[in-house]
Amino acid sequence: SAVISQKPSRDICQRGTSLTIQCQVDSQVTMMFWYRQQPGQSLTLIATANQGSEATYESGFVIDKFPISRPNLTFSTLTVSNMSPEDSSIYLCSVEDPAGGDEQFFGPGTRLTVL
Amino acid sequence: AQKVTQAQTEISVVEKEDVTLDCVYETRDTTYYLFWYKQPPSGELVFLIRRNSFDEQNEISGRYSWNFQKSTSSFNFTITASQVVDSAVYFCALSATSGTYKYIFGTGTRLKVLA
Prior knowledge:
Shape of chain A: globular
Number of strands of chain A: 11
Number of helices of chain A: 0
Order of helices and strands of chain A: EEEEEEEEEEE
Helix content of chain B: under 10%
Largest interface: A-B, 23 and 20 residues
Strand content of chain B: over 45%
Number of strands of chain B: 12
Structural class of chain B: mainly beta
Oligomer: heterodimer
Largest sheet of chain A: 7 strands, mixed
Distance between the termini of chain A: 36 Å
């Protein structure tokens, strides 16, 4: 398994501002993922972030709105830019199993409220 | 197209009752993986089980059991003798694109176990 931490755990932000969420994992992993979970909804993949390459975004998500950094094998950031109330969600990062299994392990999430 | 359907939005049971959470999936891939995750009120997703498409053996882990049936494209989850601590949202997920680890999540089933 993997131990994943996220910062901040929650935040309340004003419309038009940006927030950067950090994800730290205790093992080196090639693949990290960012998900959004809107209130009462399921998880939707935003992008896949591999170390050493540009993040791959899913349909409906763009780099200008959700820039991602992946500077090393244990860390990634997701920025939510120019926020609006519709961005209020839980943002979760996950990683592939460092032991080579097929499951993903998730961080505790960042609860974002945009006023 | 790949899809995961969890038709049960919310289930309420009384403590010690058995409860089954349904998951039906769609994929054209012959190699795929199915997962169950638990999301307690704290928000973190907890990995419960992984099953690959070539292994139809049912699995039991304590009070939890899983029934995988390819013939009906179902991967159901049963909790025996439910407890209040089992109250959470449970997500079924499908990963069917080899090597990319992309998950397709169902909409989740909220389980309420009443004392």
